[in-house]
Amino acid sequence: MADAPASVATQGTREPEGPAALLRLRGISKSYGTGTPVETEVLHDIDLDLAPGEFAALMGPSGSGKSTLLNLIGLLDRPSRGRLEIEGQDCGALDEQQTTRLRGHTIGFVFQYHHLISAFTALENVMMPLLLARGWPDAAMRERALGLLREVGLEQRKDNLANNLSGGQQQRVAIARALALNPRLILADEPTGNLDSQSATDVFSLMRRINAASGATFLMVTHNLSLAQRCDRIIELVDGKIGTQAKAPVESA
Amino acid sequence: MQTLFIILGVAVGVGVIIFMSAALAGQQANIIRRVLSAQAHIVLLPPQEIARPLRDDGAEAAIVQKPYQRIRSIDQWQKIMQETAAMRAVVAVSPMAAGPVLAVRGEATRAVSLLGVDPALYYRVIPLPEKIVAGGARLNAEDIIVGTDLASDLGVTVGDKLRVSAASGQGTTLSISGIVDLGSKGANQRNTYVALHTAQALLGLLGGVSSIDVTVKDIYAAENVAQAITAASGVEADSWIATNAQFYVAINAQYVANTTIRFAVALATALGIAAVLVVSVVQKSREIGILRAMGGSRTQIMRVFLLEGAVLGLAGSIFGSALGFAAISAWSNLVTNPDGTPLFPLEADPRLFVGSALVATLTGLVAAVAPALRAARLDPVVAIRG
After folding, report:
1. Dist CA B116 CA B28 (whole Å)
2. Which of A197, B66, B299, B306 keeps 20 to 30 A from A82, CA to CA?
3. DSSP 3-state of B220
4. What is the tens place of the pLDDT at every residue in B28-46?
5. Residues forming beta bridges with residue B156, ordered by sequence position
6. For residue range B349-358, what is the model confidence (pLDDT) as tens digits?
């Protein structure tokens, strides 16, 4: 049960490990309202490793700090204490520009709500990270975005405005967009939260397929136990602390 | 919707600025043209005659009688005229021998100014031929051109004889070759034009000239040029700015008032753009957060909003130019003299349109700075959650 691909390491001296962790959290804490009477610590002393290619589910009741943890890992926010490494790089030492760069190239986001830009078509939404990284659009960029849409099965919908897609389709576009720069780590914040069970299963299967094909590491926040059980590992977050970490039963498929 | 409104707002602002600029330019050009049409930009005169007390013991009681100013020639006027003509700011020069004479026709007598000019040179300074209403602008030894009011006062017409006599008693009979309308009753009653040597003979200024008229390239630089001429040659140089000081002050006051209004309109437009962009930053904060999460840098976010401001300014100025052009056309067609010609011509200068498009774009850019900074500083976590 406890022999996850990357086990929880004890804090302190670095012990030799098998495969280098893609993501390594050591003693991460996050407080809000620091210096005010209502200072609250949301995350306490989190240690967490994710191995390359791992597909992990992050579960926990509302308010347990899942989204906060995801934002820290996604470099959208900075921890109050602790050390965060992505591919061996200490992210606390990066400046604003380097952080933006790392976020753009190494991390892909799939958000809880269908965070597409509604004024753009599906294709343009997928091209967006490429555009932000390169500055100017070109034909290769378009090809890459088309290929990604094909991968998520939405090539026919490429010219639809984001608002004219169903929830499941929007989330698939969002996944295609998250993949645009070939990130090593994909963070998904309840990607299936707003979908009916059929669409949820489709989207989840798509993510697993991409995980298998590209070897990208996935960390998915979810409330859906049946989906979580199809992940490599379930990390449970309770009151800002890592609870149990269970190796999920091997997928039947 | 708000984009449409702000573009319209910018358009109205730009339109007003274009129309006011054209109106101001047209009106001033019109007034100055009228003022300067019968007046040289700069007039060179011999130095004033000064009485100098011979006692130099500083006695303050000495009564110094002011000397009278004879009609005198400018010392070495040919040399001064050549030097002045060689100046880069000067377009044309023309010598003049002028003095008071009596114009006599039967029982009628009028005191008039006799202006002796070299027509070839003078007509480049004052376009007299354009103002001729009867006859021609020919000025031979026996010819005289008179103003319309003098002609009617004396009951003369083209071809009639007119006797002119100077205070010295010298007199001659000239034939009227043309009648001219100088645009002001005073000038039309007073000014008569004869050939230079005719005037020199009548006024006792043989070989001399009493003044030199100068035309400059930039009429607003006339005073500076006048001072440069005085410094170089020692003659007195009066620019039209100095001789029409009050008029010039009035023109300037109008210009300042107009500029203030234009600036205020531009400011109001800029504030409008800024307000719209601030609202847009709030509305788009989720999208901004998404862009940041996808690797968009603060600089890129900022650029988007700066660009939006500039585009709003540019789009508004394009509509505004059309509006301004329409207003100018309407003015030319609706506000007319009794004879149907525009009250004064408004010039739709292309430079004005290009200039206001540039200014509006720049204004939009500047107005977008604060909202763009705000957008760039947005915390992505808060933005996405919000």
Report:
1. 31
2. B299
3. helix
4. 777 777 777 767 888 888 8
5. none
6. 788 888 888 8
